[in-house]
Amino acid sequence: MERVDELLTRVGPLDLFAPERVPHDSLIERALVPVLPLACLTVDPAPAEHASFTDNQATAAQLIWGAPIVRRAAAIGVGRLPVHRIDPVSPRASLLLALRMEGRIGAYSWVEREAIHRHAVRNRVPIDDQLSQLVTGDGGFADGIARYLRLAPRWRRAVDEGAVDVRTAEVCGALPAAVLDAVTGAERVVSFSNRRLLLGWLSELCGRDGLHEPAAVELAHDIMRSSNPVEALRRLRYPRLTAMERRFGELQQRLSGGVPLALKAPRDFEGDGFELQIKVRSPDDIGHAIDALKRMQEHGDELFELL
Amino acid sequence: MNSSSFYKARIKRLYVTSDAVGLEAVQRALGRLPHLAARAVDSLEEVPAADRNLHTLCVTAFRGATLSACPGTRVHRCCNYHTVDLYAGCPLGCSYCIMQSYLQRAPVTVYADPSPAIAAIRAQALAHRHLPLRVGSGETGDSLLYDPLFEITRRYISELADLDNVYFEAKTKTDFVDQLLDIEPKGNAVIGFSVNAPRFAAEEGASAPLAARLQAAQRAARAGFLVAFHFDPLFGSAANGRSGQDGNRDAAAAYARVAAQLAAAVPAERVAWISLGTVRYTPALKAHISRPYIHDEFVCCADGKFRYIQRERVALYRSVVQALREYLRPIPPIYLCMESDAVWYRVFGSLPQQIDGLRTLFAAAPQRGEELP
Q1: CATH number at residue B175
Q2: Looking at the partner chain, which of B287, B311, B345 has a beta carbon nearest the beta carbon of A269?
Q3: What is the complex's ipTM, to 2 decimals?
Q4: Which of B295, B300, B346 is the best substitution to test chain A (most A C-beta atoms within 10 A)?
Q5: Which residues contact A20 (CB under 8 A, 6 or more apart)?
């Protein structure tokens, strides 16, 4: 066991993690917390396998993991916490140990990932596959954080807040920040996936129509004020396709003539035919359906020119 | 397009693996690149990360796979094309190139020993003598961009010339054909040219202008080669700044002019085939394209690739086919690359297996265990 006030002085550069997962106060009060690792950090990145552990080095030891637990313990007046003094470790080994103790593979926020990355760079810890696996659960940590760090500050903030993903921020990064604000700050709340769609289409519309900032911002506000932002923007982004959809809707209504007849077009009119489903409850219904089919036959060209 | 100045400007580093140093093609290329000091490596993994880009040429003997069926595309019609790996990577810089999505940070690799691939082609051709075997070297790189250096295509053509069912195609966006012209016999070798309307030249980076490609086609045809043309990718409306029907009409007219120029350059009877394909992209490729045409209206097709709306593709194909049929007599085989049955029916009224001239081209060799057709 080690005194908490002493441990507070040992919190070092590995204080990387958010305090969300600190154990409940009742557990900290009874010292039912993970044993906190204390160790000296070697300057040489290579592990000091043969270094002897002395009292002198122990006083310079740092808390490798668990700073939020120590801070919480101090805040609620807990005097001592369990520690394990380990042999001096390299910056790499200490970071790997901290990540293993934290045990949140694939669940680190972007702010945390940035902190881990910054710590690694400052301490010359290579971002290799082993480190990457402990952070993201795959080999993509270095690439992902590099992409995140390339984002403009406003887009990075949007990613931190969970408003957009890195991919969307990259693709739409040329959009003025005010457009992003208009979409994320609108009174109308849209789902995450619809926000991605809206930003992507706004970005493409700006590229296609050469919209400058004032026009793009005005468009974004108009869209977000409409009753169905996704539909409204889709009509602008895909004017020909949505016109075909409207045309199909008109034909469907006109040709069915009130008969319960489902005429289905292939998705995006990509295919070789339409599907028909007719429900009949009586011989008369069959007659009405035959009439509707005859109408369709007569106007077949109008229908099939959509494919 | 001048090959010497192109190589001087584009090739900054040269690595050669130990298994390739002694190859005749490699010695020939080294002699033609006096401005470069070749570095010997045991394997391409040794090429430093800093040099893994399109200014680096890596020469090795050959790749594991020697003859592959063109990956084609799920659901859509496949033309039973086969490919061999000659080059992987291309510095021409076409904005629509699929290789941007998977060959980033990779040097251009030359597979300088064609012997295994030639042997595989011969074996396949001899096993199915009654079926044409179309093989191309232009899937992962331009077939002729580096050919004036290595002259590897010469070996493919010469060593396959005796097989009358083999159509070996070297496909290019350059006009680098002169090193091939004196080959005899040529067999059924085909020099294929990707063509596009000059208004879309900006999308094809450092490729040769259309006129230069057509002049090269003319030289190849006059020398006795079969030639092929690939109108791929065809651009529609928004690529030229106009959208909708007006834009499509403009594009169709531009391609009709290409058809006329093509017909003026090359006798129709020397044209082995013409393929058509509209611009298409995978989701991964989209991120690499920042040109205006990407903002046109594309829909996701059954194979997961994005293409123009079906009826607009059909209209564009019909107009180009009509122009080609108008200018080229006899009409060479014209086919669609990676298109659905629905589009085939709307453009040609039938599937390729039902069209004279295409039936045999599209006939697949049987897989192991299958009966011969």
Answers
A1: 3.80.30.30
A2: B311
A3: 0.86
A4: B295
A5: none
